[in-house]
Structures are given as C-alpha cells and as structure tokens.
What does this fold into?
Amino acid sequence: MSDRFHQHLRARTNHPQTVRPVTLNTWEAIYFDHDMERLGPIIDAAAEIGVERIVLDDGWFTGRRDDTAGLGDWAVDAQVWPQGLAPYAERVRSHGMQVGLWVEPEMVNLDSDLAREHPDWVLRHLSAPAPKSGGSSRCWTSATRVPTSTCSLSSTPC
It folds into this structure.
C-alpha cells in the first residue's frame, strides 16, 4: 500500500524530479548549543565531504535552550543569533550548499508564547481545561484550529 501511495505521489507533474541532496542535520553535532564558532568548522567539513544541504536543527528560535520551552515560537532568537541567521546562511551558501532550517509545527511547548497566546491551538479533549505549564512539556498542536494565514516562515530571514 505504501509503495502504491509513493508511486502515485511521484507521478504528479509537480513532484520534484531531482535527486534528493546529501543532507547534514546539525542536531547530533550541537544539540541546543548554537554558535557560529562551533558551526563554522562543521559547515566547512561538510562541504569538503560532499554535503549538499545543511539543516540547522532545534535551538535557533526564541527561548529554545532545552526541550522544555520555546517549541512553537518560530522566530530567530536574538540572544543566540544577534545578527540573525545570515552568518549561518552565508557560510553555507559560500560553499555552494543549500540552507535548511528545522521546524516541528505539529508540536508546541506549554512554556511558549504560542501556547500562552493560543491555548486553543493545543490539542486536548474539548471537555478538558486549557493546559498549563508544568508536567509534560511537549504537546501536539491542533492543526484544525490554526488559521492557515499564520503558517508562514516568511518572517524568518535567512
């Protein structure tokens, strides 16, 4: 069944026809410790071994210093990235590689601006009270409640 579904998707006229690029994800190398002094040599080494795309993983957005807060707040953290993501993107592109950026739109931390501003977007049983911070730090977002006009990364400059 899965094979038939993939065949169907690949047969669409708008399906990418290029081979997927060799991708390096930064998660295992830096976890939440985002710093161009650490990332720079990783980017350079990746280019030397033929990596074609580098994905900057979890930790680039506001308040995300560990896994208990910030998930859902998809704005560049000015304390971690005072010049924005431009230094990262420029370094990656200087090697001819593609820039990638990790997001997890289906999840949110209760300790996030998103959950505080839109508690109705946090998936829960309708009879349950609105969630509060504490306990489990990650929750599913309810995609049926999130207006599609809010689903844009256009304000996240690379």
Remarks:
- The longest helix spans residues 36-48.
- Helices lie at 2-10, 27-30, 36-48, 86-94, 113-117.
- The chain is about 25% helix and 10% strand.
- Confidence is low (pLDDT under 50) at residues 151-158.
